[in-house]
Amino acid sequence: MTISSVVQLSPQMPRQFQDLVRDCIEYEALWNPASCPSNGEVHEEMTIPGAALGDMVLVSIDVDVQDLDVVAHVTAANTVTVGLHNPSAGAVDLAECNVHVVVLQLRHRH
Fold it and tell me: What is the pTM of this model?
């Protein structure tokens, strides 16, 4: 996975989130995931400086996921793992896509 940009989000986030979130970091990466087998999973690690266990992660990709579940979570310091889970009876091969990840560093965590 190739990280193509790193963006610190604006401190002008809505007030209700400022009370909950200490910092918010957005990453975008180009990803060509391996074929996801029937009832199987595919995972990829991203190095995201500052990500810590307990941070919340939001993820999206810019292609049709064809009923795959897309998940992401912090698996170690500075590491976010993005995963695809295939609950269907057939393998799914997604096209190369952009992965968008937002790491929310909560005020009560650090």
Answer: 0.81
Which tokens in the block code for residue 81?
């793992």
Q: Return the CATH number at 67.
A: 2.60.40
Query: Could you tell me if 41 and 84 are in contact, meaning their C-beta atoms sit under 8 angstroms apart?
Result: yes
Domain that holds residue 35: 2-106
Q: How many domains does the chain have?
A: 1
User: H-type helices in the chain, by residue range?
Assistant: 15-18
Task: Please name the residue that has the structure tokens 């610190």.
Answer: 8
Amino acid at 62: D
16 phi and psi, to 5 degrees?
-60, -30
pLDDT at 41 over 60: yes
Residue 17 confidence (pLDDT): 65
Tokens representing 11?
């401190």
DSSP state of 18: H
Using the predicted structure, report yes or no on whether residue 58 has a pLDDT greater than 90: yes
pLDDT at 15: 62
